[in-house]
Specification:
381 residues, 6-stranded mixed sheet, D-Maltodextrin-Binding Protein, domain 2, 3-stranded antiparallel sheet, alpha/beta, 47% helix
């Protein structure tokens, strides 16, 4: 028998533990009409009970364990309709169908509360980003270092190996959840309404930014506007921003293809990145049978690579979508890229990230950063 969660609709349809009848049956006009209605009602209810029993039986037999995962970024995002389902299938494969993950269609909280949904057991699994809660998980934000990796697959393998496997940093920052794995998006780019060819073209431009791109925006002379990813569409439509930082996939996921015309990438590694992670309620994990834990863990070990490759695929698809719309995807010259890189590093961005870690009590932050940079270099060589 699988774990059965009480649906939200059921919770809303009862008060003080008693079901609420929202469909009051009208009074019959005659005794005969009452009998006929009663008979029809009995037949209908019997059919519903039969169908319900079959459905429950099918659900129970489909998986021994059903886990609910909280939605973030909505149903248009590739994580909902493409990338996470790839990992869900891996979970089914590794557990031989004994574990099923159901992903919510709507968000239950603002992005800042996603981690707490898993911690508090509102959902079994959640995913979030280190930049969503500034100051809370500073070591996850080491992945925001500029020019880390050239694609999501490579970056995801590195950040998961560094944060989870090698240094087990989740034990410092997330002791109240079961940490699953970390990953990174594709290379960070700048998407604007007008073409940017040099650093001077960025002067005075208002760019949406939320993570390491805030520091980069300032260093390059632009004005960062710190709004969430889901607000980019409205801000661009109203003209309150001139562009946005995003991996290429963000143009598809947040429906921006007709709102920006130029997509600027850096030669080689991305301009910036960030760190995502999946966490699980500890009681949900501890409650799994030992053999299911073992097989589920095999799927967790593949999580970073699967999610990273899915992200890369949607970078590609989003690029094709932009081209079909007549947009321009281009790179600045190597000489100009070298100027940007020097300016960004001279501005002390890496040092700023390290200081955040030290402020949170991680005295080995400099050593951790150096190790991460070495791992990025090794992965790109």
């Amino acid at each position: 028998m699988g774990r059965i969660f009480r649906p939200i609709e059921e919770a809303r349809s009862s008060r003080h533990g008693r079901p609420v009848n929202r469909h009051k049956t009208p009074e019959p006009n005659s005794k005969g009409e009452h009998v006929m209605r009663s008979l029809k009602t009995t037949i209908a209810l019997s059919a519903i009970v039969t169908v319900g029993a079959v459905a429950q039986s099918q659900t129970a037999s489909a998986a021994d364990v059903t886990l609910r995962m909280a939605n973030w970024a909505g149903t248009a995002h590739h994580m909902y309709h493409y990338t996470l389902p790839l990992w869900f299938e891996e979970v089914k494969k590794q557990t031989k169908g004994r574990v099923e993950i159901i992903y919510d269609k709507v968000m239950l909280t603002k992005a800042q509360g996603l981690y707490d949904l898993a911690r508090d057991g509102v959902r079994d699994i959640t995913w979030s980003n280190g930049s969503i809660n500034p100051g809370r998980f500073p070591l996850t934000r080491f992945g925001e270092v500029p020019y880390g990796s050239a694609n999501a697959t490579s970056g995801s393998k590195v950040i998961d190996a560094w944060y989870r496997k090698k240094h087990k940093l989740y034990q410092r920052e997330m002791p109240d959840v079961h940490f699953m794995f970390a990953w990174q998006p594709g290379p960070g780019m700048i998407h604007t309404k007008k073409r940017i060819n040099s650093m001077e073209d960025l002067k005075g431009l208002k760019l949406r930014a939320t993570s390491g791109d805030v520091l980069i925006s300032k260093a390059l002379g632009a004005t960062p506007v710190t709004i969430q990813v889901t607000q980019a569409y409205e801000a661009l439509s109203r003209g309150t921003i001139d562009g946005t930082f995003f991996p290429m996939e963000g143009i598809h996921s947040f429906r921006l293809v007709k709102l920006v015309n130029f997509h600027l990438k850096q030669p080689g590694a991305g301009l910036y990145s960030s760190t995502f992670y999946a966490t699980m309620n500890p009681k949900s994990w501890d409650g799994l049978p030992a053999d299911i834990k073992e097989s589920f863990q095999r799927a967790i070990e593949k999580g970073a690579e699967i999610i990273g490759s899915g992200w890369d695929e949607f970078d590609r698809r989003s690029g094709e979508e932009a081209k079909k719309n007549g947009n321009t995807i281009y790179a600045i010259t190597k000489e100009e890229a070298a100027r940007w890189r020097k300016t960004i590093y001279d501005a002390g961005l890496v040092d700023e990230i390290v200081k955040r870690g030290e402020k949170a009590g991680n005295k080995d932050s400099r050593e951790l950063m150096n190790d991460l940079l070495d791992m990025y270099r090794a992965a790109s060589s």
